[in-house]
Every structure is written in structure tokens, then in C-alpha cells.
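REQUEST FORM: STRUCTURE PREDICTION
Request ID: SP-0412
Submitted by: Lab K.M.
Chain count: 1
Length (residues): 117
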Amino acid sequence: MSKNRLFHITSLAEWKEAKTVGEYQPEGFARENFIHCSYRHQLMTVANRFYRGQNGLVILLIDSSKINDSVIEENLEGGTELYPHLYGVLSIDAVSNAIAFPCNIDGSFSFPVELEV
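STATUS: Completed
RESULT:
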């Protein structure tokens, strides 16, 4: 995996909409003005904390070298671990892949085989 790789979890419906308009802007963007992203090692923590039990999700693999807007590492909840936040909309050209991300029977998530090292 490239060190320029960022990850973002979203619904398949939002991703399909983004592909029709050429850019991705999640539902909460108008309120927050940024897109929550993760590094690979943070992905399962984020998935199991915020998306537990949800189906119809995809993981967007983002090449940060193709992003024109600012990516700032920060933790807005006061923790010590920094997460990448994209302050701008995401061009679909920066997304190299969208991987189906179903939850397990118990509602938890596991790494998709496409992301296993």
C-alpha cells in the first residue's frame, strides 16, 4: 500500500451519486466542511465505532497525491491519534478503487481481502 493512500467509508448510494457528478461530497460535508478519512491502520477502528451493523458500504481508496485541497491531520475529539481530514470535495479521479465493505453477521467489520497485506 502506498503511503499516499487514504481511506474513506461511505454508502454505495453516495458513491454512485458522486460518479454521476464527478466529485464526492458526503452528507455531513455542509456541516463539517471536510471529509473524514483514515489511514489503513485506523480503518477497522473507525468502521467498528461508527458503522457497526451497517450494510451497503464501500471503502474508497484515495490517492492523496491527486487531491488539490488541503489534507490536515487532526483529532477533533481531543484524542492523541491524528486522522486525515480532507478540507474540500473529493474528485472521483483521486479515487483508485471502491471496495465493497459488508459487515459480518455480528455487525462488526473485517479487512476486505483486497486490503490484506
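NOTES: Strands lie at 5-11, 23-24, 35-36, 57-63, 70-74, 83-87, 90-91, 95-100.
Reviewed by: T.R.
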